[in-house]
Amino acid sequence: MSSLTVTGVTKSFPSTGRGHAATRAVDDVTLHVPHGSFTTVLGPSGCGKTTLLRLIAGFLVPDSGSIAFGDTVVAGDGVRPMPPQTRRVGYVPQEGALFPHLDVAANIAFGLGREARESRGDDRVAEMLDLVELPADFRDRRPDELSGGQQQRVALARSLAPQPAVVLLDEPFSSLDAGLRGTTARAVRRALQASNTTGVLVTHDQNEALSLADEVAVMRAGRLVQSAPPSQVYLSPSDPQVAEFVGRAVVLPGTANAAHATCALGQVVLTEPTEGEVALMIRPEQVYVDLVHAEGVRGTVEEVSYYGHDCAVQVRLDDGTSVLSRMSGVLHPVAGDTVHLRVTGLVRAYRPAGSP
Amino acid sequence: MVIGPVELWQLLARPRIGELLRNTVTLAAACMAATAALGVALAVLVERTDLPARRLWHGLLVAPLAVPAFVNGYAWVSLDRSVHGFAGAFGVVTLSYYPLVYLPVVAMLRRLDPALEESAWSLGHSRARTLRTVVLPQLRPALLGGALLVGLHLLAEFGALSLLRFPTFTTAIYDQYGSTFNGAAATAMAGVLVVLCLFLLLAELRLRGDRRYARVGRGAARESVPLALGPWRWPLVATTGAVVLLAVGVPAFSLVRWLVIGTSTQFPLADLAQALVTTVLLALAGAVVTTLAAVPVVWLAVRHRGWASTLIERSSYVANALPGIVVGLALVVASLRLVPVVYQTATLLVAAYAILFLPRAVVTVRAGLEQAPVGLDDVAHSLGVGPLATARRVTLPLIAPSLGAGAALVFLAISTELTATLMLSPIGTSTLATEFWSASSELRYGAAAPYALLLVLVSIPATVLLMRTDSSTDRRGTP
Which parts of this chain are annotated as the region Disordered (chain A) (predicted)? Predict the structure, then answer.
């Protein structure tokens, strides 16, 4: 087990047709995952996150830059790229990809030495099943007798059995239905924590990325645009596009004056002081809807989407600006109500591109 | 034997060629139309109505596939000498080949989402009108594909048409080759036959490219509510029964009758055993060679996609459209010119089998390799297993069943192959097909019967396999 360091890695694919330039799938990405921690790489489909994962695993070789597990450079910097079978990575692909001709025990023991396999790796298999929270009598089942979530757990157990340096998970939960996704993801996270394994998970699902990770790395068009703990990525995204990708956001123009700024929602407090014209990013949870007092900016409720645990309220301010608020579902307005809005908490301001 | 365009024209521009062309084309067109009509009607009857005992009918309607067409021809002509010429050939061949349309149409009907039909009813269309406007148009690819397959089989058919005395290109090539050994004339006719086959093959490929998936939505398809036949029920049962009687009953009766008559005089157990052993050995060799040849083709086509590998894979399909007689003739000519040593040896015969049946092995093995996605190799590598060990521990165990199935299909196809075997088998070699042929073409019907019976028995497993794969494509009940 070790840390993972990716330094300035770039990978292009040859153009697919005439007139198309070669696509830079991964463009100068630098990422450090400390030993025993868990990073999620978040990005829309086609942003290059799976390519990054396959570069780390060794299925692809970077054009430039280097990849190191701990102090060992496995690719780049004039080192002959290590083939995947000697890198000691655990790889969990999208559909789990259990070997359909082997039972659960043989799948888990697949990466162990010959002796361990012949004794069917009994201890290790039992240990791994326990780690991924599956009953011990699952060892004799065939992959097609398992549910999607169980298959993913076995796939993880298989990747962890040979004690890999790093475990790589390629959208492992995307094919599961919503209920299973949450519980399987939690179980996987616990298993990685219990074995103190360094992990990288690639996903396009914001909730998954934020809720599982020690650190979230956001990718866009091959570049890494932000790498930070989940709350920082959510509350202080590096630019408005990241803000809108990791959650709903109200972006309003405003004028900053040191620690404060003025916008359609009145005066707000900034995360860090700045001056001049700015774009303000406000999360819908920060927009407080006052149903009782006439304090704050007045507006009319246009639409209410009720989810039970909470509800989203679209409000048209008197000046015509449309603002989204998220509030508890216990007491909520109905369309046509007149309400007053206030911003709570700190607000992140962005200087327009090109300004100092 | 090199001939120029003038000689070629003289060989082809003869009244005899015109007659053969007319015979071949009219018979092919008539049989394609008849099998299409019969196949669709029976498929709709079995899959979409409340015909009693539908599963039983399904089994009976597929059964003619187990009777090679030349055995069927023998059964009819040996019962009634008046079955011959166009009418005889048309009737016998239609009864032999309609399952080639019936099976894909049944598979398609099972895959069709009944929600489409239900939508049409809810929009006020009657059951009959829905069948015509919603169901039939969607059957088109299966129907045309099946009919083209009938066409290709018909162009290659030698045994049945020869027994029924209806000359087409294939029978004429064989006669030419056998009687006068006039290589040039036979080769020229084979050229025309190949052109006809390629024409059908191109039509088939074009059709395959346009094919759309029948089901758009996900989830298991439900069984559609069967159409109530009402007063038509028993007349339709009688009609279906008549088809089964003609297609299965008559050949079975004829076979049993000749078996009884033939064995009452003599029962050549030793000859029979020898022919059976030779057939099995040849078929085993052919199956192994063909399956091994299919592996690299499939590997390239699935794992290294590109225009070159696609071309290699597709070119093997051309052989699918080549009649056994053409491949046989080509190998005779080529071996005499290039490697006379192999002429009339088992090696050449096995090579012919490999060329003829490679497409069947490719299709089966390909399906198997696609079950072993590259993702599994990636996982194995990440677990520290090198490429060779991955092939041994992952890929091979996964494709082994399909290799076995492919070899079995080829084995069965070779056991009942007649034309190429007649042309290429070494002198003195007797197989089931050649022994059957020498007896039945000399009108020794009783002597032919035991061979015919063995040929039918050998064909049964392939038929069952075909029925299974076609009905498993509906995936009913699996998520």
Answer: 1-20
